[in-house]
């Protein structure tokens, strides 16, 4: 095809990018995912791409499922792609199809064929040359870069084709994409409704953008290619939510995302793997882990930068670390090699904590014997599930015998009603316990999330009264002062803080790791916080059958976490049996 004049007139290396990245001709171009996270994974991915035809999409290749971890990673990847496609389609359905009253522009649109990858770049260039106001699923490639984007929005107000055409690259995000600026001068966003994209000039707002690395690198790389082609506006954009409202498109200055791209391009590439947090769900997990195990690499115990101090002393392996004469980490290195998940710290550091015993002191050597020991306690375990854009959608409770959940699975949200119902129920349990002169404790596992979302609801809806559907009852959202008073009181307890005092771990002290030590078995294997978010999207956006199944899974997952917290606490009261004790030194 003939390349548009605006592309031909652009200097070959307008930004000096060829001096930043120089690729051999037989290697595939860089994608945004190559500039995010583990650089060793990027090397392996690029090597795999170089060995298969460009037209082979990863999602249609036969997966290599050798272990349960392989299956979990594959299922998570499929779910991620499916939910991303759902988000894209929902946005595309909202794009304008005709001018609104007062609009002077017509929303011309070109959809790039997502199947025909071999000609996608050419299709995108033709769409740009046609002056289309909206281009969905564009693919941009120039020099070292290739970007598969969600949307291009024409930013200038010209009609038809001219030399001044400018386009803004847009990514559709599953994350919160903006937040209210703390000061007016810090606001950097202009906003437009999705049904006005390509027609209306974005309006100034008091929001400041927030872009996760993957989204930032995608729009940054797309902007760079558009600059090379001569079509770049001075803005980039993200479509997503800013709080509980509807998704909108937030525009902000392109230079704000370019430093992150340049820094990623200049970062050195490791020649051998080192374990980091991302390894759990990486497609190359087995490949790298085999090398790490063979070398007994120290990052198996101390991932990321945690081993920096030891590496500076020349200690690179677990046997070398275990041979050190003193300290907690050498003992944990030996425990790791012995297959131990955790070591128990001396009981005098944690067993006597009054919080563990309903506020009463306890002596080492005593355990929770007969059930009557706890007849004056009322304990409730709480777990919360939240969507990063929507906020909380389920607060679960377990009182020792019964699970009760307070959920919001409506498509548009209940504006905090389920939080107010949860709060009123919880306060009623507290008032009854205190009236009967019993100790009252609410237990969560790692309280930061619950604290944040309770405060968030109180800040947004505090004092609001709700009518409970199907009843004559009303509930009221607590004020921020009421929430702060409760979560800083002796009634709000964090089981995770006790676990950290009691155990030294060779890996994680998360609930999914610790609860099995206490004898608890989770019924929903393979579901984690990220998967719960995707299940919630299915529960509010899928077919009726899919939605009901997703909701049942979420409620069972939430109930498991409530009961697991109770099991861990009971296990600690028995002295955390079954673990080797950390030696005093």
UniProtKB/TrEMBL annotation:
<feature type="region of interest" description="Disordered">
    <location>
        <begin position="46"/>
        <end position="68"/>
    </location>
</feature>
<dbReference type="Pfam" id="PF13482">
    <property type="entry name" value="RNase_H_2"/>
</dbReference>
<feature type="domain" description="YprB ribonuclease H-like">
    <location>
        <begin position="433"/>
        <end position="572"/>
    </location>
</feature>
<protein>
    <submittedName>
        <fullName>TM0106 family RecB-like putative nuclease</fullName>
    </submittedName>
</protein>
<dbReference type="InterPro" id="IPR038720">
    <property type="entry name" value="YprB_RNase_H-like_dom"/>
</dbReference>
<feature type="compositionally biased region" description="Basic and acidic residues">
    <location>
        <begin position="51"/>
        <end position="62"/>
    </location>
</feature>
<dbReference type="InterPro" id="IPR019993">
    <property type="entry name" value="RecB_nuclease_TM0106_put"/>
</dbReference>
């Amino acid at each position: 095809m003939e390349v548009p004049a605006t592309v031909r007139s652009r200097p070959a290396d307008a930004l000096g990018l060829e001096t930043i990245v120089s690729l051999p001709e037989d290697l595939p171009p860089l994608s945004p995912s190559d500039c995010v996270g583990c650089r060793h994974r990027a090397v392996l991915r690029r090597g795999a791409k170089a060995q298969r035809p460009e037209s082979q999409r990863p999602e249609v290749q036969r997966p290599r499922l050798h272990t349960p971890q392989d299956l979990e990673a594959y299922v998570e990847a499929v779910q991620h792609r499916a939910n991303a496609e759902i988000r894209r389609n929902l946005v595309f359905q909202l794009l304008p199809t005709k001018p609104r009253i007062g609009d002077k522009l017509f929303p011309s649109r070109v959809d790039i064929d997502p199947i025909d990858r071999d000609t996608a770049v050419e299709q995108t260039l033709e769409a740009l040359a046609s002056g289309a106001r909206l281009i969905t699923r564009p693919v941009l490639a120039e020099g070292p870069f290739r970007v598969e984007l969600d949307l291009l929005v024409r930013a200038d107000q010209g009609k038809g084709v001219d030399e001044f055409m400018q386009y803004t690259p847009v990514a559709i995000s599953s994350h919160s994409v903006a937040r209210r600026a703390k000061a007016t001068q810090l606001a950097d966003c202009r906003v437009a409704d999705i049904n006005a994209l390509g027609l209306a000039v974005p309006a100034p707002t008091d929001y400041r953008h927030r872009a996760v690395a993957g989204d930032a690198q995608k729009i940054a790389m797309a902007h760079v290619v558009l600059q090379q082609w001569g079509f770049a506006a001075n803005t980039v954009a993200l479509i997503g939510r800013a709080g509980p409202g509807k998704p909108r498109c937030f525009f902000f200055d392109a230079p704000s995302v370019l430093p992150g791209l340049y820094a990623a391009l200049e970062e050195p590439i490791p020649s051998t793997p080192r374990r980091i947090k991302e390894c759990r769900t990486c497609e190359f997990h087995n490949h790298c882990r085999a090398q790490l195990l063979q070398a007994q690499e120290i990052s198996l115990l101390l991932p990321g930068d945690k081993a920096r101090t030891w590496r500076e002393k020349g200690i690179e392996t677990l046997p070398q670390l275990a041979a050190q004469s003193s300290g907690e980490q050498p003992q944990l290195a030996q425990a790791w090699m012995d297959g131990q998940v955790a070591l128990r710290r001396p009981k005098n550091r944690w067993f006597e904590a009054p919080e563990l015993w309903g506020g009463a002191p306890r002596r080492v050597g005593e355990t929770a014997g007969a059930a009557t020991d706890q007849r004056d306690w009322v304990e409730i375990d709480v777990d919360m599930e939240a969507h990063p854009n929507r906020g909380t959608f389920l607060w679960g409770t377990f009182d020792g015998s019964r699970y009760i959940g307070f959920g919001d699975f409506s498509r548009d949200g209940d504006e905090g009603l389920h939080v107010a119902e949860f709060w009123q129920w919880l306060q009623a349990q507290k008032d009854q316990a205190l009236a009967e002169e019993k100790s009252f404790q609410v237990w969560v596992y790692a309280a930061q999330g619950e604290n944040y979302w309770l405060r968030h609801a109180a800040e947004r809806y505090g004092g609001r009264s709700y009518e409970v559907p199907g009843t004559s009852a009303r509930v009221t959202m607590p004020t921020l002062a009421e929430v702060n008073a409760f979560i800083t009181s002796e009634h709000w307890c964090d089981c995770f803080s006790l676990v950290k005092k009691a155990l030294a771990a060779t890996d994680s002290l998360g609930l999914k790791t610790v609860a099995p030590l206490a004898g608890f078995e989770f019924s929903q294997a393979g579901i984690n916080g990220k998967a719960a978010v995707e299940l919630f999207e299915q529960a509010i956006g899928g077919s009726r059958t899919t939605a009901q199944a997703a909701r049942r899974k979420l409620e069972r997952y939430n109930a498991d976490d409530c009961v697991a917290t109770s099991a861990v606490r009971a296990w600690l009261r028995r002295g955390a049996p079954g673990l080797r004790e950390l030696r005093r030194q």
